[in-house]
Amino acid sequence: MGAIDTMLQNMPMQAWYDFIFIWGWLCIALILILLIIWILVCIWVFRDAESRGMSGVLWLLIVLIIGIIGLIIYLVVREDRKRPVYGYPPQQPYQQVPPQQQPYQYPSQQAGPNFCQGCGARLEPGVTYCSSCGRKV
Ligand SMILES: [Zn+2]
Q: What is the pTM of this model?
């Protein structure tokens, strides 16, 4: 009975050691993978913020300190800043018009084909608004 007792006591302990050993390494590998992904995300935030004229160091620190919430905040703020820089809504070309094109009441409007002073598109005779950008002519 003594020999069987020691076997029953030793076997589960050995199995537990194996279990902890394997899962310990799996956990370490998982943590390392997550750490690498997180470092890549931080590098991306830094570069993306710098490319948009924002402070890369500031956003890197925000993401590092707050974590995934900081990343979400950055993505929301980033989308908001994207519109006035890259978006050119056709209804509002006034701010993009160079100053030298501002005086648009030339007498030449009376003769020959008209061209939009905002976007340069050809205008049909008699139209009040540019069909391309919506500017009043
Ligand atoms: Zn136009």
A: 0.44
